[in-house]
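Re: weekly structure request thread

Next one in the queue (143 aa):
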Amino acid sequence: MYQLFGSKDEVLAASLERRRPWYETQFRSPDGESATPRERIGYVFRRAEESAAAPGYCGCPSLAVLVELKDSEHPASMVARAAKELLRGYFEEQAAQGGAADPALLAQQLMLIFDGAGARIEHLDDGLLTATATTLLDAAGVK
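Done, posted below.
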């Protein structure tokens, strides 16, 4: 392994980076452009619930890295933050398109419940994550 990577830190970062395309596609609605912004955001949370129900699912690897590694300059932390920022940006973009009064705030709130669910995956009841996201979307007036 060390012929390909200079350290175990680089191995971890590379493994997260390798998963990034998969991570991105897991949260893109198959309905694409025909879905409303609200439906696109809802799809992310439904997929998260489906993933949580899968045997052997251990939560979001990016979240695990951010929780476990306290060094924000660690190569894996930087890759994990970039993945999380990508999702936050997607939420903000959809919130703006859906008419949210404060898309940036809504995106932060959605990330909070998304990551909170990822950290407490074993306690996630069926539908609770999506219902919570729906409450935020309702409060923000997202169509």
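The mean pLDDT is 89. The helical segments are 8-26, 37-53, 61-68, 75-97, 103-119, 128-140.
Next request, please.
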